[in-house]
Amino acid sequence: MKVLILITIVALVAAAQAARDWSKIKPKHLRVTPRIPAVAPRIVGGLEAEPHGVAYQAAVISGGAFCGGSIISDNAVLTAAHCVDGADSSEVILGAHKILEDEPDQQIIKSKAIKVHKGWDPYKILNDIAVVILSEKIRID
């Protein structure tokens, strides 16, 4: 019976991952004008990175929105508060270079908790920072 339940859970997780409709997942933009123009833009309007050259980079998907994040521990990712504001959960993709393709190094991990900065103010765009605690440890090869 336990084996049957485990097989069912694995099948449901695999189906959920295969069912991700990327046409409905959009970058979550926040209109912010920097006070100082970027000398060498690397985040918005930058160039494609070398494959796996930014190993700490993560993709955070929450509520149909797609944002970037950075690995800060073996089970946590730092992202912007506006990316996860109001979300109960998120999904984090790690080890990807071309996120729309199935790559052998990709890890997809669900969140266990989302901690948004207590001072996050979406109107003034203050303290726009959050931590996504992952449900399992990141596999670092």
UniProtKB/TrEMBL annotation:
<comment type="similarity">
    <text>Belongs to the peptidase S1 family.</text>
</comment>
<feature type="signal peptide">
    <location>
        <begin position="1"/>
        <end position="18"/>
    </location>
</feature>
<protein>
    <recommendedName>
        <fullName>Peptidase S1 domain-containing protein</fullName>
    </recommendedName>
</protein>
<keyword id="KW-0645">Protease</keyword>
<keyword id="KW-0732">Signal</keyword>
<keyword id="KW-0378">Hydrolase</keyword>
<dbReference type="GO" id="GO:0004252">
    <property type="term" value="F:serine-type endopeptidase activity"/>
</dbReference>
<dbReference type="InterPro" id="IPR001254">
    <property type="entry name" value="Trypsin_dom"/>
</dbReference>
<dbReference type="InterPro" id="IPR009003">
    <property type="entry name" value="Peptidase_S1_PA"/>
</dbReference>
<dbReference type="Pfam" id="PF00089">
    <property type="entry name" value="Trypsin"/>
</dbReference>
<dbReference type="GO" id="GO:0006508">
    <property type="term" value="P:proteolysis"/>
</dbReference>
<dbReference type="InterPro" id="IPR001314">
    <property type="entry name" value="Peptidase_S1A"/>
</dbReference>
<dbReference type="InterPro" id="IPR043504">
    <property type="entry name" value="Peptidase_S1_PA_chymotrypsin"/>
</dbReference>
<feature type="domain" description="Peptidase S1">
    <location>
        <begin position="43"/>
        <end position="141"/>
    </location>
</feature>
<keyword id="KW-1015">Disulfide bond</keyword>
<dbReference type="InterPro" id="IPR050430">
    <property type="entry name" value="Peptidase_S1"/>
</dbReference>
<keyword id="KW-0720">Serine protease</keyword>
<dbReference type="InterPro" id="IPR018114">
    <property type="entry name" value="TRYPSIN_HIS"/>
</dbReference>
